[in-house]
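Q: I'm building a small set of examples for a reading group on sequence design. Run inverse folding on the following structure and report the sequence directly after it, with nothing in between.
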C-alpha cells in the first residue's frame, strides 16, 4: 500500500515462514522491526495506511491479537477481539470514518480506536473472501468465492457477493455466477464503485462490476488471446481511473504471465 507522503508498505512471508514488514521510500526498501518479529505464531497478511503516518497491519501474534498498529516508528499489537479463530484474518480495510476492519473466512471485526465489534462470520463451504467495503457500519459489502459441497476435481468456484447490515449477511446475485470476485473498491466518498472478477464461462476478458446506484452491472475488459485472471483492483487517486493486476492463467500455473489493465 502507498501513503500520501510518498512512502509504501509491504507485508508477507519469506521462504523460511518468517513474517516480513517492509517500508519503501521510492528507490529502496528496508526491513522494519515490530513486536513478535521472527517469533512462532506471528504472521502478517495485509496492510493499509491512515492520515498523519498511521499504518495498520492485519495478521496474528502468539497472544491472539490480529491488528498491528504503527506510528512514527512505534509498533503495537492491539488487544485481541472477543472471538476465537483458527485462521488469521487475511484482509484489512480502513474506512473514511477511521474504523479499521479485519476480515477473513472466520472473522469480520471492526476496531473503532477503543474497542472491537465482531460481526457474524460470513459462512460458506470452502469459502474465501477477497475484499471488504464498509460504506457505513450498517452497510458492508464483501466479495469472494465458495466451492460448495463435493464436485469433480477441477470444479470451479461459485461467486460470493454479500451485503451486511452489521448484524447479518445477505447473499446478492451477481451478473455472473461461476468464478471469483477478486476485490472491491469505493469511490472518493467511500461509496460502492467497482469490483474485479474472473468469469469461468468467459475467461478471455476480465469481468468487472460497476455499481449504478441501485445494482451491480457488468463491465468487460479487453479481449485477450489467453485467459484473464485479475487478482486485485485499485483506484487512481485524484482521477476516475483504475489499475487492475492479475495473470494469464488461473493458479497454479508455471506458465502464467503478469497482466495489467487500466
Amino acid at each position: 500500500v502507498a501513503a500520501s507522503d510518498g512512502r509504501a508498505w509491504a507485508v508477507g512471508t519469506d521462504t523460511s515462514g518468517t513474517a516480513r514488514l517492509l517500508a519503501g521510500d521510492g528507490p529502496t526498501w528496508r526491513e522494519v522491526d515490530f513486536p513478535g518479529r521472527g517469533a512462532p505464531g506471528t504472521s502478517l497478511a495485509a496492510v493499509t495506511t491512515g492520515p498523519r503516518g498511521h499504518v495498520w497491519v492485519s495478521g496474528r501474534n502468539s497472544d491472539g491479537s490480529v491488528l498491528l498498529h504503527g506510528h512514527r516508528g512505534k509498533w503495537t499489537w492491539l488487544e485481541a477481539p472477543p472471538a476465537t479463530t483458527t485462521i488469521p484474518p487475511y484482509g484489512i480495510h480502513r474506512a473514511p470514518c477511521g474504523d479499521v476492519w479485519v476480515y477473513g473466512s472466520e472473522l469480520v471485526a471492526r476496531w473503532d480506536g477503543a474497542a472491537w465489534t465482531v460481526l457474524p462470520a460470513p459462512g460458506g463451504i470452502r469459502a474465501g473472501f477477497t475484499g471488504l467495503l464498509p460504506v457505513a457500519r450498517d452497510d458492508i459489502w464483501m466479495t469472494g468465492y465458495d466451492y460448495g459441497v463435493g464436485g469433480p476435481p477441477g470444479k470451479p468456484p461459485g461467486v460470493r457477493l454479500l451485503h451486511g447490515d452489521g448484524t447479518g449477511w445477505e447473499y446478492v446475485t451477481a451478473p455472473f455466477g461461476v468464478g471469483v470476485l477478486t476485490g472491491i473498491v469505493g469511490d472518493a466518498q467511500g461509496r460502492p464503485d467497482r469490483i474485479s472478477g474472473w468469469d469461468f464461462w468467459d475467461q478471455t476478458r476480465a469481468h468487472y462490476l460497476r455499481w449504478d446506484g441501485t445494482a451491480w452491472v457488468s463491465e468487460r475488459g479487453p479481449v485477450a488471446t489467453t485467459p484473464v485472471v485479475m487478482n486485485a483492483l485499485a483506484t487512481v487517486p485524484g482521477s476516475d481511473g483504475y489499475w487492475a493486476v492479475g495473470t494469464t492463467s488461473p493458479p497454479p500455473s508455471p506458465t502464467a504471465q503478469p497482466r495489467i489493465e487500466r
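The CA atoms of residues 17 and 43 lie 9 Å apart.
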